[in-house]
Structure prediction request, 104 residues.
Amino acid sequence: MPPKKTVRNILVEGRLVLQLYVSGMSPKSMTAIENINRICTEYLEGAFDLEIVDIYKNPEVAAEQQIVFSPALVKKFPFPKKILVGSLSDESKVIKALGIQLKE
Prediction:
């Protein structure tokens, strides 16, 4: 198990591997991209890999991952795998779902 890494005021186990599935440049997709980029930059500086997948350009990837709704954020690692659907505007909910623990 990789050691815990302290980034600013948070603790993360290893490195987060995320995939954000979007539907082209729709307003909801753009909002989700902005929100996850902000959250990752603010809370996970250097402790994440984020891939943005356009399901219009790569429908086979979405089918393989069983992505039905978009935007959808998939936390692939560390386990357990989680999927969040929507614009990712509820920052506290996203942080909790990603397993980010704020230091007290």
The first helix runs from residue 27 to 43.
